[in-house]
Structure formats: C-alpha cells, structure tokens
UniProtKB/TrEMBL annotation:
PROSITE patterns noted in UniProt: CB, TYR_RECOMBINASE
Origin organism lineage: Bacteria, Pseudomonadati, Acidobacteriota, Terriglobia, Terriglobales
Name of the protein in its database record: Site-specific recombinase XerD
All residue ranges annotated as the Core-binding (CB) domain in the record: 40-133
GO BP annotation list: chromosome segregation; DNA integration; DNA recombination
Tyr recombinase domain segment(s): 160-343
UniProtKB keywords: Chromosome partition, DNA integration, DNA recombination, DNA-binding
Record bears the keyword Secreted: no
Domain of life: Bacteria
Statement: the UniProt record of this protein carries the keyword Nucleotide-binding: no
GO molecular function, one term: DNA binding
C-alpha cells in the first residue's frame, strides 16, 4: 500500500466507525417513548439527558421510569413557571412536599406515594441535575446533599421487610391460579421456581428454556444489573411448560418471546410487565392475599431457600445479586422460623452445657 493511501484509508475507517456509532445512538434514543413524555421531549436539557441515558444501554423499563419521573417534575415546574436551571430551595421544598403528600384523587383518599417510589424520583433528579452541572447549566445540584451543608437525605429512606404470604394465603393463591389459563399458571410457577423479576420473566424467549436439563437462561440484557445466570425449574413446572408449548403453537409458531398474549387486540404479541402485574393483582384479590405482587414470588423463593438452610452466598448467586446486603433485604424469615431456629440452637447448647457440667461429678 502506498504511503499516501494509508491516511486516506484510516480517515475512511474512522468516519465509518463514527457513523456506525451515530446510527446506533439514534436507534437507542428512538426507543424512548417520547409521545408519553411530551414535556421531556420539548425541554432541550431534559431530552438531552434522557437521550444520554438511552445511549448508556439502560433497560427500556429504567428509561421509561426516568422519563415518567422527569415528566412529573417538569409538569410541577410549569405550575410555578420555572425552568429546571432556575429553581431555588423553595421549589425543592415544594416539590418534596408534593411527593410525600397524600393523593388528591377522591377515589384514593389518604393514598401516599411509597417511600421507595419517592427515592426513585429523587435519584432521577439527582442524576439529571448532575448532568446540568456538568453542562454548565447550573452551578450546583439542589437535590444532592452531603456537600458541606448537610449529610441528611432530603427524604429519609424507609427499610421495610418484604411481604411474605402465610401458608394459608399461599394455598389460596395457588387455588386461584389453578383457575387461570395455562400461560398464567406457567408464568407464576417459573417466577417462583427461579425467583425471577417480572422483567426477566416477561422477556424470556423460547431459546432461553432447556427442557432437557430443566433450566432457564436469564440473559444479561434482561436483568437489572446485567448479570446472566442459569437457573433450574421443577418437574411440575416442566409439565406445565409442555402443555403451554402446545397452546402457544395455536398463537404463533415463530421463535421469540415465550409468553404471548391471546387477547383479540394484542393476539400473539409479547405479554408486558404491566399485563403480568394486573394478572397477579387479580389473583391476589380473589385469594384475599394483601400485598401479594409479582415481586412477592421472588421474595418467597429466596426466603424458602434460606429456610432450606442455603448459604447466603449461594442465595445471592441464585438471585443474581452483586451484594450480600441486597440478598439480606430479600430474605425474610418469619418470627415462627426464627423461634424454631432459636429453640433448636438453645436446646443443643443446653445439652452441651449439661454434658460439660456432668464432668464435675466424675
């Protein structure tokens, strides 16, 4: 190759890479449902920030949550005729008050936003204002504490034990689930067997299931922390899986998403996380199992592993957690479980003490 050809070839290669990255970025940004967040789309800084988050390769559900949180915030600022970079502490305080106050809807009296939801809102705003500071649009982040003024959080984080159904509630849930179509029965069984998050469950594809080994491959791109894992499922679930495949062929013979809708409006379309949540909510209501959600199945699975004396590190690997502290939040042993363990331990220790004291009389 001639010496003068090398710079030209290098420039062509560089331009091709830049164009490829630009196209990929545009594809990621186009995945954001802008029609649902018109204020974010119309605000230059907000659109740029959410577009940047899309380019990071975040899950669509995460992007949707960021978009909804920012849309709510911009709608609040519009009521004060303010732009994001024009606010002071009085606006921050007013928005915090708006977040924690009860719902104003007459059909939902005294319904407050959950503490975890408030924390998600504030996390999105902290990242958004970090972006504005870096871009020179703000001099400081009004939603980030601990910068010399105060180390206290804007809203204290509450740590609540997860809801775990009693044996009676679980039996009622299973009884009501048995009345559901085969797809819903399989989704509940797989969710419990493998401790799946609802996103992981709904994004399963036919190629992710290995019936010969009775395993589920949870792909990294469908997980919350981008960690893939292979998990087992039970013989009962395997039988449900075989029955569901026969039903699925009546909807579609194409590979792809495992769980398909059978409603006339969305026939053969993938089941969304929102549809699955509605299904579980309906089952829980009929079973009179208060607080039972799709995530309850994950909590119950990990708690049952702890009851079966699995090591905490094993449970963390099973759940796909990076931190054991996260696993400890999920694993919830009831007072009855703890009492049984305490009594068994104390009986063993007491016996050892008595045996030791017996040496005094020899």
């Amino acid at each position: 190759m001639a010496a003068d050809e090398r710079p030209r070839r290098l420039a062509q290669s560089t331009n091709h890479a830049v164009e490829k990255n630009r196209v990929k970025s545009n594809q990621l940004i186009s995945e954001v449902q802008w029609d649902r967040i018109p204020l974010v789309e119309g605000e230059k800084d907000a659109r740029a920030w959410l577009g940047f988050q899309a380019c990071r390769g975040l899950a669509l559900n995460t992007l949707s949550a960021y978009g909804r949180n920012l849309e709510r915030y911009l709608r609040f600022l519009n009521s004060y005729d303010k732009r994001p970079h024009e606010i002071g502490q009085e606006i921050v305080g007013a928005y915090l008050r708006d977040l924690v106050k009860p719902s104003a809807a007459p059909e939902e009296p005294d319904i407050r936003m959950a503490n975890a939801t408030i924390q998600q809102h504030l996390a999105a705003l902290r990242m958004f204002y970090d972006f504005l500071v870096e871009e020179g649009r703000c001099t400081r982040n009004p939603y980030r504490r601990g910068d010399g003024r105060s180390s206290l959080p804007l809203v204290r984080r509450e740590h609540k034990l997860p809801t775990i159904p009693t044996e009676e509630e679980w039996c009622r849930v299973l009884s009501e689930t048995a009345k559901e179509p085969i797809r819903n029965r399989l989704m509940l069984a797989m969710s419990y067997d493998a401790g799946l998050r609802r996103e992981e469950l709904c994004l399963l594809e036919t190629s992710d299931i290995d019936p010969s080994r009775r395993t589920i491959h949870v792909r990294a791109e469908t997980t919350k922390n981008r960690r893939s894992r292979v998990l087992p499922y039970s013989v009962t679930t395997d039988e449900l899986y075989g029955q569901y495949l026969e039903h699925r062929r009546t909807l579609s013979r194409q590979r792809g998403r495992l769980f398909l809708s059978q409603s006339p409006r969305n026939r053969a379309q993938p089941v969304s996380i929102w549809a699955w949540s509605k299904i579980v909510t309906a089952i829980a209501r009929r079973a009179d199992a208060a607080g039972f959600t799709p995530h309850t199945l994950r909590h119950l699975c990990l708690t049952d592993l702890a009851r079966a004396d699995w090591d905490i590190h094993e449970i963390a690997t099973f759940a796909g957690h990076r931190s054991i502290e996260t696993t400890m939040i999920y694993v919830h042993l009831s007072a009855r479980d703890l009492a049984a363990k305490f009594n068994a331990t104390m009986a063993q220790l007491h016996q050892q003490r008595l045996e030791g004291m017996g040496r005094l009389f020899r």
